[in-house]
Amino acid sequence: MRVENHSVNTGRLDAIIQEFGGKKSNLIAMLQKVQEIYRYLPEEAMIYIGDKIEGLSPATVFGVATFYAQFSLEPKGKFEIKVCDGTACHVRGSMPVLNAIRAKLDMKEGQLTSKNGLFSLETVSCLGACGLAPVVVINDKVYPQMTSDAITIILDTLIQEDER
Amino acid sequence: MGNRTLDVNIEFEQRKAKKLIKSQGLRVLVCAGTGCVANGSLKVIEKFKELGANVSILTDYDKMTIVPTGCHGFCEQGVLVVIPEKKVTYVKVKEKDVEEIFESHIKNNKIVDRLLYVDPKTYQHVENDEKINFYAKQTRTALANCGNINAECIDEAIAVRGYEALANVLAENNPDAVIETIEKSGLRGRGGGGFPTGRKWRFTAANRGGKSYIVCNGDEGDPGAFMDRSVMEGDPHKLLEGMAIAAFAIGADEGYIYVRAEYPLAIKRLRKAIKDAEDRHFLGKNIMGSDFSLDIHIKEGAGAFVCGEETALIASIEGERGMPRPKPPFPANKGLFGRPTLINNVETLANVPVIMLKGAEWFSKMGTETSKGTKTFALTGDVNNTGLIEVPMGTTLREIIFDIGGGMRDGKKFKAVQIGGPSGGCLTEEYLDIPMDYDNLIKAGAMVGSGGLVVMSDKTCIVEVARFFMNFTQHESCGKCVPCREGTKNLLKLLEKIVAGKGEMKDLEELEELAKVVKDGSLCGLGKTAPNPVLSTLKYFKNEYIAHIKDKKCPAGVCTAMKKVVINEDLCKGCTKCARVCPVGAIEGTVKNPHHINQEKCIKCEACLTNCPFRAIVLE
């Protein structure tokens, strides 16, 4: 064992590894579970899994984690905003919506999480809800036919909700 | 080989299921696909259930049953409510409308006119699918049950002949005959490539005897395509039946469905469907009492477009980075875990049961010489009716856009249609009348791809669209081979330069040359087709590129570097609405005095423009 001081709960990780039979072909599913718990993949968790499972190394785990868009290596916000930028959404104006969100939350291009940690923002390629374009998803709730002022109102409501 | 008797009598199961459905009384179908759920269909369903609890008031039926269905395809008009026995389709239904439908139509047989679909051309109110052009001009086979049955109830699938084809196939017990039928039908892969399905099955079947796998590719990554999602959400049993038939034909006993993680509802419904099918012995050990067994697992993707490529998909199922590898060896010989593997796309497999039921000849009568059957398309963009459609191969783009799609939205002018997503191309007006099939589209510089059709008007900037797709493929390039990794990066740089108003004429030559290198030199389909959007737009819309480069103008008024939002002081009444909606506080001015936009702060989101009551804000 290389890592002694875990800020992650190794008991929980063991349970996840066990749930998937400790098989390396289930690595992606295990990482998905880990991310469900921590809202990102803590380095310690990746090292732990890499050491524990036969045929894997921390480097391979890190390689898989960085390959897939779903995995995040830094913590995500309490509200995860996904702006769909698939073709249909793009043609119907997803970029003005994205710009409005960035402006409202004071986030720069490429910045994942807002300074207060409340929001994280990313674009996704297609959510398959093209008939409702442009679409924004916040914590799995789909907001159809967005405009820059509609999303501003939604963000205001979420901010108020959080303050309460 | 030869006929055998099964434990399961499918005819008997069908009769039982039909009886069950009859006992439901009046069926009210409410769409519960991803699109309609976003529009509030779960609340509509709850409200209906609440009202329907009081059954004694119904005269013609002793009860009513609310059936949550899969996607009807007409997502933009959601929530859709269909009452088949009353031959009516209601659109854009909200929770507050439910009571009126119930009181007026269900109880008193009086149609609720204001909730009917309004034809965008004639402005007439249309009662049902037979009369709504969007549906009337379609031929639904793969999507036949989507929207008509409760996707979470196996009996509903059985009542519409679900698992009948599988029962027949198992009773006849002749795998080679199955392959022959699929070959004769002319079915080709619906995921993009268009490889003959029967031939793929035969290659894999040649390795019968040892362990082999069937894999369903549900990694629908093409932006703008959602047919596979609709099948998985709306008719999961058809997919499972198709997989079982394919597995029987090639001699596989284990299967995987690889689904994008972006489709949580599809994953949930498939999980339930697999369990229900296992409980009925339609999947699992000794299916229907035969010696054929099949276990199906679900693998969730984690967001990588390249995993739609079959060798990358295999790597991903094995838990590795989803990178493609050179072929041969083909998966038919050496695939998942090194064993022979058949990989088919969702829509391809969804066509299998109906071909086995109605015969190869029935299927091959539809379509063109080289492309048989029907194809689903996701129709989106600047058309009136957006949604999921299914038409015979060979249907023209004009029929799809102007008849089914109801023509251009808001009276905009048709400019181009983008077919086949990031691997496809843009086609112009002159191609509207060619019969669409695999080969004609390739000839025209596009491809069927997964079937995304994005209609663009003169308000869409073609150069920006090319940049958009290149940005996508560059981002999704796995980085294994140099032409794709470095080529897409440089193509994107050139396009970004042009869109930013800094392009030079020599960039166009460089674009074209580099595009050809990437096309010829890349390892897998992603890189080989990535330059298509650039090449096809250069071919048909060179003028627009030149306008960006020479005149520093975006003819569609889209490219932000070249546009300016300004207030016409003569028209501005100083109502302050624009200043209030501006998300960045870029608009200054006092009440009843003309306002002014601070160009340094403006992010060109056009919120002010769409909200100005006096149309005083314009793009310059």
Short account of what is shown:
The complex is a heterodimer of chains A (164) and B (620). With 164 residues, chain A is α+β, with helices and mostly antiparallel strands. Chain A folds into 2 domains: 10-67, Arc Repressor Mutant, subunit A (Orthogonal Bundle), CATH 1.10.10; 79-163, Glutaredoxin.
- Written as H for each helix and E for each strand, in order along the chain, the element string of chain A is HHHHEHHEEEH
Could you tell me the number of beta strands of chain B?
19
Helix content of chain B: 25-40%
CATH architecture classification of the largest domain in chain B: 3-Layer(aba) Sandwich
Q: β content of chain B, as a range? A: 5-15%
Percentage of residues in DSSP E strands of chain A: 5-15%
Helix content of chain A: 40-55%
User: What gap, in angstroms, lies between the N and C termini of chain A?
Assistant: 44 Å
Shape of chain B: globular
What is the CATH T-level topology of the largest domain in chain B? Rossmann fold
Structural class of chain A: alpha+beta
Number of strands of chain A: 4
Tell me the count of domains of chain B: 5
* Backbone structural class of chain B: alpha/beta
Task: Describe this structure as you would to a colleague.
The complex is a heterodimer of chains A (164) and B (620). Helices cover 46% and strands 11% of the residues of chain A. Chain A has 164 residues and is an alpha+beta fold. Chain A has 2 domains: 10-67, Arc Repressor Mutant, subunit A (Orthogonal Bundle); 79-163, Glutaredoxin. In chain A, strands 2-1-3-4 form a 4-stranded mixed sheet, with helices on one face. In chain A, a hairpin with a 2-residue loop joins strand 3 and strand 4. In chain A, helix 6 (94-105) packs parallel to helix 7 (148-163). The longest helix of chain A is centred in the last third of the chain and has 16 residues, at 148-163. The radius of gyration of chain A is 18 Å and the shape is elongated. The model of chain A is unreliable at 1-6 (pLDDT under 50). Chain B folds into 5 domains: 18-132, Glutaredoxin (3-Layer(aba) Sandwich), CATH 3.40.30; 154-363, 3-Layer(aba) Sandwich (Rossmann fold); 374-457, Roll (Ubiquitin-like (UB roll)); 462-549, de novo design (two linked rop proteins) (Up-down Bundle), CATH 1.20.1440.230; 564-619, Alpha-Beta Plaits. Chain B has 25 helices and 19 strands. The mean pLDDT of chain B is 93. The radius of gyration of chain B is 26 Å and the shape is globular. By secondary structure, chain B is an alpha/beta fold. The termini of chain B are far apart. Classes of the chains: A alpha+beta (164), B alpha/beta (620). At the A-B interface, helix 2, helix 4, helix 5, helix 6 and helix 7 of A face helix 2, strand 11, strand 15, helix 18 and helix 25 of B.
